[in-house]
């Protein structure tokens, strides 16, 4: 499918959700509307930011393990050694 066709299908989905009147979909429709290019990129390229999100979670867990960061330079050094 091409980008234009995917864009039309996404707009149709958005309209159907809006017509349904279900308030539970408000958050997802707002996020989809704000990030529609990224959503369309997934369907065109099958690419996601899952690896970035996973790496971010590892950094947060690492930071929480040591209860915060006092020396940013040393923190970045440790991150580089562990995850690079």
UniProtKB/TrEMBL annotation:
Q: Which residues form the Transposase IS204/IS1001/IS1096/IS1165 DDE domain?
A: 3-78
Q: Which Pfam families match?
A: DDE_Tnp_ISL3
What's the protein name? Transposase
Organism superkingdom: Bacteria
């Amino acid at each position: 499918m091409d980008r234009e066709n995917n864009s039309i299908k996404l707009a149709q989905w958005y309209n159907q959700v809006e017509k349904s009147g279900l308030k539970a979909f408000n958050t997802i429709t707002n996020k989809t509307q704000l990030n529609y290019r990224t959503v369309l990129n997934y369907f065109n390229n099958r690419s996601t930011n899952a690896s970035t999100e996973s790496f971010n979670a590892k950094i947060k867990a690492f930071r929480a393990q040591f209860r915060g960061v006092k020396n940013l330079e040393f923190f970045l050094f440790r991150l580089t050694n562990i995850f690079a």
